Amino acid sequence: MLTGTFTVTVTASNSISGKTETRTIAVYERIHDLHIYGDSQVVLPPGSGTWGLAAGPDQFPLDDIECVWNMGANLADTTYNVTLLDSATPHEVTFSYGTTSALRETISVDCSNGISSQSLTMDVIFLLDTSPQTCVDLFIPDAASHIYVVCVVFLD
């Protein structure tokens, strides 16, 4: 399918008169096969990660779509105008978290064009580093689905 903005001219006439109309139309590709990827764990504080969208095998190239990222429940949305998204050109964002009281956030991205949209989500788990030089925190789930933070200290 050919996508883009096109000018269409139509002329209708008979033996008495004629009329010509010119219109500009936009033809969009349907958004239906995008995949979210990125860092599923972020070490805090401060923590940053990279997330992105990739076109799946059934997605034709997308031109000029809008993607709105939400990096957590209490954070503002960020809108990106993506000029091209195809199998060779992903759309990536980098985000930095400060301190947070949550152990997990669900990030989301909603991409749309004039005829379609697709929404995707991904969970991000925060690992708390309480002593940047000597300690790495690990989440260890127990059988009752509680999460404990265990600090492993490395001694020289």
Helix content: under 10%
Number of helices: 0
Kindly, what is the distance between the CA atoms of the first and last residues, rounded to a whole number of angstroms?
63 Å
| Total of domains | 1
Strand count: 12
Which sheet architecture does the biggest sheet show? Answer: 5 strands, mixed
In what order do the strands lie side by side in the largest sheet?
4-10-9-6-7
Name of the CATH architecture: Sandwich
Question: At the third CATH level, what is the topology name?
Answer: Immunoglobulin-like
Order of helical and strand elements = EEEEEEEEEEEE
**CATH superfamily, please?**
Immunoglobulins
Alpha-carbon Rg, integer: 24 Å
**CATH class designation:** Mainly Beta
Low-confidence stretches: 132-137
Shape: elongated
Helices and strands: which structural class? mainly beta
Compute the average pLDDT: 81
Q: Report strand %.
A: over 45%
What topology does this entry show?
Blueprint: E1 4-13, E2 18-27, E3 34-38, E4 41-44, E5 47-55, E6 62-70, E7 78-85, E8 91-97, E9 104-112, E10 117-128, E11 135-141, E12 147-153
Written overview of the protein:
The protein has 156 residues and is mainly β. It has strands at 4-13, 18-27, 34-38, 41-44, 47-55, 62-70, 78-85, 91-97, 104-112, 117-128, 135-141, 147-153. The protein has one domain: Immunoglobulin-like, CATH 2.60.40.10. It is built from no helices and 12 strands. A 5-stranded mixed beta sheet has the order 4-10-9-6-7, with no helix packed on it. Strands 3-5-8 form a 3-stranded antiparallel beta sheet, with no helix packed on it. Strand 11 (135-141) and strand 12 (147-153) form a beta hairpin. It is elongated, with a radius of gyration of 24 Å. Mean pLDDT is 81; it is low at 132-137.
